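Supplementary Note 2. Why include the ligand at all?

Several targets in our set were suspected to adopt different conformations when bound, so apo predictions alone were not considered sufficient. For every target with a known small-molecule partner we therefore ran a joint prediction. The input for zinc ion is given below.
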Amino acid sequence: MSRTIGVTTAERIATGLVEGHELVGKLRVHEEDPGAEPLFSTPPTGIAQLFADEIRAVAAGQTVDAIGIGLPGIILDCFIEESPNLRQLKGVNMRDLVAEALREHGITAPVYIYNDANVLAAGLAATHGQLDRFIRVWTLGHGIGFGVYPPRPGIWEGGHVVVSIDPRERYCGCGGVGHLEGIMGHRAMRLRFLDMEPDEVFENARKRDQRCVEFVKLWHRALAAATANSIHLAGPGKFFISGFNAKHLDLNLLHQYLQEMVKMSPLQSYVFEVAPSSDENAVIGAAVSAAQSIHA
Ligand SMILES: [Zn+2]
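The joint prediction is reproduced in token form.
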């Protein structure tokens, strides 16, 4: 059985040792200021050092077969092509930086870098016994992630699909107009509602504040539209929804909008499942992906 270490950075930095598909011992969580976006202002070498310290603590002197790390952005063959929400990582060979920092701790296991939403998809597939089918996951956090399992060639930046042709929709972290993340992302919501936090927007919608009510409808329609687009391109199937803002989801409303958008009967067999806590699944997914990469 493989022994690998997984690291996720999606909501906070969490690291864990995984045997097969199961977490061994407790997840190690790197504590930062509450509400801070992880790694936002840390330079790449600092990030690599931080990962190496966390990995060393989890390995606790035992040898491991491989290390998998999830990071946001377009990541091809462990190379970070683009990362709108961690701009300092664009063009950085994170695998080499982390491997170098690990060598100073005497750890020489191979390091693999993946898109953070893809590792979450792998973790959800592993923990739900669905490694044999195509699954997708939306992560509703500071940005919006979209992960697929098994990995497919392509870019899959689902958080940046265009769900509005209104030129005023320009809150996306990447700067693009009309993007899903520009409506649903936590950072984008703070830009839109300068006078209230996203949690207050949803709370005020329940109190029938009209501006908030309209926004909560838009928020759900945006996710329905992005999901409908994915269904029309890649077919129906299982969609997980995760991330800290998944708590605001009204599944009935989402279903209602999606039914309005997907009318072809062979495409209507889609299923949503909310998987609120992403840390453990993402760590398992990063570790499982690393185990698969060794044998690839
Ligand atoms: Zn975007």
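Residues 210-234 form the longest helix (25 residues). The two ends are 16 Å apart (CA to CA). Comparable summaries for the other entries are listed in the accompanying table.
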